[in-house]
Amino acid sequence: MLLDEPSAALSELIEALHESLDDYQDNLQRLHHDEIAEEFNGAMNTRCQLVSQLEQDAERYLHLRPRAADSDREDFHHLWSKLKSLVIDEQHILLQERAEQERHLISLTARCQSYDYPQLIIGQLEQLHQHLTDQLKQIKTFQQST
Fold first, then answer.
1. How far, in Å, CA of 23 to CA of 5, rounded?
2. Coiled coil where (predicted)?
3. How far from each other are the two terminal CA atoms of the chain, in whole angstroms?
């Protein structure tokens, strides 16, 4: 099924959000800093709820079905992250990757906010944008303190 531009943008955002949840799960297994792990776990739980609701409403109002994850890309990203952590401090790498991913998600969310969606989805995009912005600020705080 071909998607119009707004639906394609929202589909791309939802897929990227799912990838970010997978990355958070992986990061939690690799982190050795309790405060950061606790923050990541809380962010992951909040994001999971936001994504679930956005996905349900996108299907309900836009008839948008989630795409299958690109497992090859996820596997490559995971392997690349592990290789980098052999050379550079793993916590530094994790925080840098988290910040990059949050900026990318903020960009995708802003793109979606430029389209006309049902008001409910617009509100969810605003909540998501705020969540991502808050999380990026928290990651930057962790980067400065380590």
1. 27
2. 7-34
3. 47
For residue 85 the two structure tokens come to 């952590």
Q: Residue for token digits 């890309």?
A: 73
* Among 72, 16, 84, 75, residue whose Cα is nearest residue 47: 16
Which residue in 90, 107, 105 sits closest to 26, CA to CA? Answer: 90
Amino acid at 98: R
Give the integer Cα–Cα distance in Å for 134 and 27.
18
Express each pLDDT in 22-70 by its tens digit: 999 888 888 888 999 999 999 999 999 999 999 999 999 999 986 555 5
Please give the structure tokens belonging to residue 34.
């309790």
Q: What is the pTM of this model?
A: 0.85
CATH code at 5-64+71-145: 1.20.1260.10
